[in-house]
Design brief:
By secondary structure, this protein is an alpha/beta fold. Bound molecules: phosphoenolpyruvate (PEP) and magnesium ion (MG). It comes from Barrientosiimonas humi.
């Protein structure tokens, strides 16, 4: 085993690139990248870093390189939260990330212990050598005498003989050798030489005409010599064993590192050997092949198929493709006369088809299927076992016929027929589900799942989900995050995975490994179990409230269903900062009436007991299409009539919902909040709507409780920059950082390619948050934050430091955030 290495960067690509480079020189070292915010964006992720640290840790320690300051903060937090015995052997190294990682990797590959690896990384610093001090020291024998470590470019290389360190003493032995490989001592050969000499106590330097000698253990310094085939290099060492080590090194240089017959890639200078068969790119490829040949297996999820990260967490289990709807229905409790059953069936078909009429192309195709008279005719021909049974029998028959077609396009319609048919069943009072206990312990694969299905999957014990489709902000994803179910979306191989194949799914970096080596599965399982244990520990502590710098703050949950509410309680939520009511209408066949809305809310509020809850009124439009309303992409898109704008244009909807909320609030502590507010006038109109709804309940003599407070979401930059102007009309504001970041950058939040523009820690967001919180403080407006950023421990702390009083997040995030506040918020 060797010391491991973790590279933390704000960019996933940077971290992976550094790891790729370093691993070419250290094939048996565990090198793990922890780049990006875990959801495809720029930033750092506590979860990613913690996981990477566990993965890199063989027990011999881990050296951690990082790029920018806030990466340090997140890394420190990850260390703080690890078991102290474990954290002790994980060291953050101040060093340039590329040079440091390479030097550390080489030192680890050479069998160096943690302190040697850390020292190698530190010494690799270009600038670190500029003071002529410790950096680049030749080694034990030379002490601090030899600042030959390269410095910035040739900075350390123009020194005179006195800088040449112990290796250049009077008793020095030298060898002069000609470089034969076209690219000279580039990274891989340099690493090979460094490995060769690192096990020996004898320091060796290498020099080329016109440049000062550099320590052969310093890979980057050797690379900076810029040697090419035909160059003569001088190797120098002194003391016992010098002859032997120089012979070895000289031999390695002469042998050409297996590259002697390869052309240099185009654009690279060099006079060395040519090979007609080799193409310019071959040299690069051979470097990789040479470096990785014989490397031991390790968890290398980057070699697996990448999808898009959706919900963090590691899942290990057999693959289970979510099947079709079931073939058989439960026997009906009562079968009416044929005429009665016929009417029930025909009504159900009409209602189901009408619901689908205004929908997208797929919905309209489903409506057309339902209206196909041959289907209904066949079903009503035999109603002896009731409308539902006969309907489903004919639906299956049609679907099976289609599925048997040789024409793929026709066969693919079978699933549509079943789905459309199932809609009719619901109107006949029969619920069908494709999820049962067979998902228990499995990583589930499907094209798409609905939000309600995610809840079912969790309840049935699925450990992870990979979807062929999906979008990072789809409600199914939001629900998965809330419930802590690891999920990868846009996974391209969803149809290629054999049932029962072992799957390792990493929801944080969006990778799915199918049937990886048994060793990798075992290690991934250990990691997943360690994560589960840690989560359980943190959950236990999370029931306690927390203070931030002596002020009590709320760590609340974002919920949208009863399952979320249960998860909120289980994870120690102090309250609910955002109850998304869209989820209560999205899966419905008809828009719910007041009583239904009240009942749905009551069910959720009863789970939450006396915790304070902020209910957000319907946020239709944008990324939240509500197919039972006339919400269209043309009129109700991100910049259209969405959120409160839609409700003010449909006052009856708002009135009904506000009445339902007030009726459900009896015995609970409920506030209301409007989404997507732009102007003070809109906020004022919302307050008036709340007052009117309460007044109507009073005059109707209906039992209710008026909202404790009336607030708005701040998601539109115009509102964020004028918060103080809302002081007289709102009791609080809650920052929706998801939409705020999207509107600030003019970037569609559902477009994965634009994820880097949605960084909640961008300087634009910081400035807006600073302005917003300052203005709010000046007018005494309490500020909460309920966008995703609130669930990142580091960002949550930065929000609390700005005076925010409540951070609200996916329930599964609460334990880690509370833990961070407890530790760092003193
Ligand atoms: C937000 O925009 O940050 C927010 C919390 O609302 P939603 O994600 O539901 O749009
Ligand atoms: Mg929003």
């Amino acid at each position: 085993m060797s010391v491991g290495l973790v590279v933390v960067s704000h960019s996933a690509q940077v971290a992976e690139g550094v790891v790729e480079l370093a691993s070419q020189m250290a094939p048996s070292v565990r090198l793990v990248a922890a780049g990006g915010d875990g959801s495809g964006g720029v930033g750092t992720s506590f979860d990613l870093i913690s996981t990477a640290l566990d993965e890199a840790d063989t027990g011999d320690g881990v050296a951690i390189l990082y790029d920018l300051g806030s990466a340090l903060l997140t890394t420190e937090m990850a260390l703080e939260m690890a078991d102290p015995d474990v954290a002790e052997r994980r060291v953050i190294v101040e060093a340039p990330v590329v040079e440091g990682a390479i030097a550390a990797a080489v030192a680890a590959e050479g069998g160096g212990g943690l302190s040697a690896v850390v020292a190698a990384a530190r010494e690799a610093g270009g600038d670190a050598g500029a003071d002529g001090g410790g950096a680049g020291a030749v080694g034990a024998a030379g002490g601090d005498a030899g600042a030959v470590g390269g410095g910035a470019g040739a900075g350390g290389a123009d020194a005179d003989g006195s800088e040449r360190g112990a290796a250049a003493g009077p008793a020095a032995t030298t060898r002069t050798v000609e470089i034969v490989n076209p690219l000279g001592l580039h990274a891989r050969p340099a690493a090979e030489l460094a490995r060769l000499v690192s096990s020996s106590a004898v320091p060796v330097t290498v020099s080329v005409e016109g440049k000062s000698p550099v320590d052969l253990r310093s890979v980057m310094s050797v690379v900076r010599l810029g040697t090419r085939a035909g160059d003569q290099v001088t190797l120098e060492a002194s003391g016992d064993g010098a002859e032997a080590v120089l012979d070895q090194v000289a031999e390695a240089v002469r042998a050409g590192f297996g590259e002697a017959g390869i052309d240099a890639p185009s654009g690279v200078g060099g006079t060395g050997g040519t090979n007609d068969k080799a193409s310019p790119g071959d040299a690069e490829r051979s470097l990789v092949a040479g470096a990785t040949a014989g490397a031991p297996t390790r968890i290398d999820l980057s070699a697996t198929t990448a999808g898009t990260p959706a919900s963090p967490g590691l899942a290990v289990g057999p693959a289970h493709r979510l099947g079709d709807l079931p073939d058989d229905l439960p026997a009906p409790s009562r079968v009416g006369e044929p005429a009665e059953e016929r009417e029930r069936l025909s009504d159900a078909v009409d209602v189901a088809a009408a619901e689908l009429d205004g929908g997208d192309d797929l919905a309209q195709a489903h409506a057309a299927i339902l209206r196909d008279p041959s289907l209904l005719d066949a079903a009503v021909a035999d109603l002896s076992d009731g409308a539902a049974q006969s309907w489903w029998r004919e639906v299956r028959r049609l679907a099976d016929d289609l599925a048997a077609s040789d024409d793929e396009v026709v066969a693919a319609r079978a699933i549509d027929v079943r789905e459309a048919g199932a809609r009719v069943l619901r109107h006949l009072g029969v619920e069908v589900s494709r999820i049962d206990e067979s998902v228990s312990g499995a990583v589930v694969l499907a094209d798409e799942v609905g939000p309600a299905e995610v809840t079912e999957l969790v309840e049935q014990g699925a450990v992870g989900v990979a979807l062929g489709g999906g979008s990072p902000t789809a409600h199914a994803v939001v629900v998965a995050r809330g419930l802590g179910l690891p999920m990868v979306i846009r996974f391209p191989r969803v149809d290629d995975v054999d049932e029962g194949a072992q799957v390792v799914l990493d929801g944080a970096d969006g990778t799915v490994a199918i049937d990886p080596p048994a060793d990798d599965v075992r290690r991934a399982r250990e990691r997943a179990e360690a994560q589960d244990r840690r989560t359980a520990e943190l959950r236990e502590q999370a029931v306690e409230p927390v203070d931030f710098q002596g002020r009590s703050v709320l760590v609340a949950a974002n919920v949208g269903s009863v399952a979320d509410a249960r998860a909120a309680v289980a994870n120690g939520a102090d309250g609910v900062g955002l109850l998304r009511t869209e989820l209560l209408v999205l899966d419905r066949e008809t828009y719910p009436d007041e009583d239904t809305q009240r009942d749905d809310l009551t069910e959720i509020l009863d789970v939450l007991g006396d915790r304070p809850v902020v209910v957000r009124v319907l946020d239709a439009g944008g990324d939240k299409p509500v197919r039972t309303l006339d919400v269209t992409p043309e009129h109700n898109g991100f910049l259209g009539i969405r959120g409160l704008r839609y409700l003010l244009a449909h006052p009856e909807l708002l009135h009904t919902q506000l009445r339902a909320i007030a009726r459900a609030s009896v015995g609970h502590r409920v506030s209301v909040m409007a989404p997507m507010v732009t102007t003070v006038e809109e906020a004022q109109a919302f307050r008036e709507a709340v007052e009117a709804a309460v007044a109507s309940l009073v005059s109707d003599g209906v039992e209710h409780a008026a909202p404790e407070a009336v607030g708005i979401m701040v998601e539109v930059p115009a509102a964020a920059l004028t918060v103080e102007e809302f002081a007289d009309v709102v009791d609080f504001v809650s920052v929706g950082s998801n939409d705020l970041a999207a509107y600030l950058s003019a970037a569609d939040r559902t477009e994965p390619d634009l994820a880097p523009l949605l960084d909640p820690d961008s300087s634009a967001m910081k400035r807006v948050l600073d302005a917003l919180t300052e203005q709010a403080a000046s007018r005494g407006i309490p500020v909460a934050v309920c966008g995703e950023m609130a669930g990142d421990p580091g960002l949550a702390m930065s929000l609390l430091a700005r005076g925010v009083w409540e951070v609200s997040m996916a329930p599964a995030r609460i334990p880690a955030v509370k833990d961070a506040i407890r530790r760092y918020g003193r």
